Amino acid sequence: MKIHDMMVVKIRQYFMKHLELTHEEADDLHHTYYKNYGLALEGLVRHHRIGSCSGWSQANVDPLDYNREVDDTLELDEVLKPIPELTELLLSLDRSKVKPWILTNAYITHAKRVMKLIDIEHFFEGINCNILF
């Protein structure tokens, strides 16, 4: 199974559980949020976050719970393996001139997990998670 397909299943389950939606409603709302915001989480934060004044739902969505139930539960070890070409590229960098960082829209736990699975964490100075919630 591809990572995207795994994500779709986990996001649907999250929407069904926390927003009390049917399978079809969850898929429709996920598609709407993805189309409008680029991420399901962005739509959840905008319309369902704890303390939100949105009329969409009374559900209280915690972004860190979302991360724990969606990103952190993906079975990535089944699909992600080290990539020899990427390792070679990273080895070729002159680290006296370049201090590489990872920039991601994922939460830090997910980013670290992916980096570990593809065995590149030791090549980077740090991680910049561009995620706002």
Descriptive report:
The chain has about 130 residues and is mainly alpha-helical. It folds into two domains: about 5-75, Orthogonal Bundle (DNA polymerase, domain 1); about 80-130, no CATH class. The chain contains six helices and two strands; from the N terminus they run αααααβαβ. It has helices at about 5-20, 25-35, 40-50, 65-70, 85-90, 110-115; strands at about 100-105, 125-130. α1 (about 5-20) crosses α2 and α2 crosses α3.
The biggest sheet, with number of strands, parallel, antiparallel or mixed sense and barrel status, is: 2 strands, parallel
Annotation field: number of helices: 6
- Structural class assignment: mainly alpha
Q: Which overall shape is indicated by the principal axes computed on the Cα atoms?
A: elongated
| CATH domain class of the largest domain | Mainly Alpha
Order of helices and strands: HHHHHEHE
Number of domain modules: 2
Distance from first to last alpha carbon: 29 Å
Low-confidence stretches: 51-57
How does CATH name the architecture of the largest domain? Orthogonal Bundle
Strands, count: 2
Mean pLDDT: 89
